[in-house]
Give the backbone structure.
Amino acid sequence: MSGADGFARTIHPSAMVDPLARLERDVFIGPFCVVGPKVVLGRGTKLVSHVVIDGDTTLGEGNIFYPFAVIGMAPQVRRIEKEGRLVIGARNTFREHVTIHPGLEETRIGDDCLFMVSAHVAHDATVGSNVTVANGVQIAGHVVVEDHVNFGGLAAIAQHVRIGEGAFVAGGAMVERPVPPFVIAQGDRARPRGINRIGLERRGVSEEIIRELERAYAETLLAREHSLREAATRLSPKSEEAKRFRDALLAIAEP
């Protein structure tokens, strides 16, 4: 079908799309989907079937949602004085039973992320770009996930925790403390286990920078004679990656 603006769209007859919703060109809405009145579906959005998108939710281009994904419904808090926004970037994939809640202020998802079956992102969380969230991962409210993070299945992240760029959170990890950039976090309660060499290599980071990060990790998080703050202060980073690693440790360290 075509809208009043002449843009082509495909909407299954069984779908319920509020007439106030804004649908850009090349949107596909499959059987038994529900789209609320404040929703904006960016160009090329695809709702396979049985998808619910509601609330003040804005999607960029090329997102795909698989059956029973529920996006933008009210956050899970005891009292909602006001419901905020959900902003999702471009080219993300949301597999079956994924739930993403709007913020009390704003929840934000970046670009090119993969959310596998039954992953959850709670209110006021921020997820960067090129993030992979495996099956059953639970991201609590006000969490910040930086770019290029990978989560193993069934990991859980406590409220207000920051997961640094390029980190790997291992399957089943229970994370209650910040994870520095480029680090592997594993266990219950999760602790640093090393530098995420594989993730860095896949991104094309040079061997020289990876070795610098491994030396910095060894001097600060592996075996150190000084406090974390003092050990981090002693680092002399050459690369931008090592500088980000040091700065994150200084932010985490006790004063």
In short: Helices lie at 197-202, 207-222, 228-233, 240-252. The first strand starts at residue 9 and ends at 11.
